[in-house]
Amino acid sequence: MSKSMGWVCAGAAILGFSAAALFADVPPPMHHGAATAGAQPAAGDEQLIASAMKAAPKKVAENSTVVAPDPKGGMRTLRQGTNGFTCMPDNPETPGPDPMCWDKSAGDWIDAYLGHKTPPAGKVGFMYMLAGGTDASNTDPYATKPTSTNHWIKTGPHVMIVGADASFYDTYPKSPDPDTKVPYVMWAGTPYQHLMAPIG
Q: Can you give the pLDDT of all 200 residues of the chain as single tens digits?
């Protein structure tokens, strides 16, 4: 999942699910409020939209809603989409590129994660991080830095399946120190376990 989740956490409350806020600090310039129909994005917004669109395949990204954190920890909509996916640009505070896109069910899962609640049953979600991910703990959903016991890993481009039944995850490796070049379960044994499937 990567440190992207930390960026999402900062401004949790937009787009019909409070979890849309996946990240914390974002580069200026920023403007408050949602994009209005027909409004032209600012130059900085265009860069953020371009970054967010790197997370998913072109046909998904070009019709997605794009959101970004604002300086006060809230969220704002840069572009309204039509396909049920929401995308977020790279977190500039992390060492690698980590824009991400998620569908509505994944948004509900993120909402549960942010609220330290159990994700809703029967809602399997899908997330893209095709530009890659930044280092994260493979065992502690809320770790913010490496320790000698939290199994920090590096991930490249990948997709994620969240919210599936436990039996689904039981068919994949759950090692604390996985081979990140094959599918594996991150945060195994927690309510937030999810499949990480590398791309490329």
A: 544 544 454 333 222 233 333 432 222 222 323 344 455 555 599 999 999 999 999 999 999 999 998 888 888 999 999 999 999 999 888 777 889 999 999 999 999 999 999 999 999 999 999 998 877 899 999 998 889 999 999 889 999 999 999 999 999 999 999 999 999 999 999 999 999 999 97
- The domain locations on the chain are 4-198
Query: Pairing between strand 65-69 and 136-137?
Result: unpaired
From CA 131, how far away is CA 52, in angstroms rounded? 9
Write a three-state SS string for the chain.
CCCHHHHHHCCCCECCEHHHCCCCCCCCCCCCCCCCCCCCCCHHHHHHHHHHHHHCCHHHHCCCEEEEECCCCCEEEEECCCCCCEEECCCCCCCCCCCEEECHHHHHHHHHHHCCCCCCCCCCEEEEECCCCCCEECCCCCCCCCCCCCCEECCCCEEEEECCCHHHHCCCCCCCCCCCCCCEEECCCCCCCEEEEECC
Q: What one-letter code names the amino acid at 48?
A: L
| 116 Rama class: left (phi>0) / alpha (psi -120 to 50) / beta | left
CA distance 58 to 56: 6
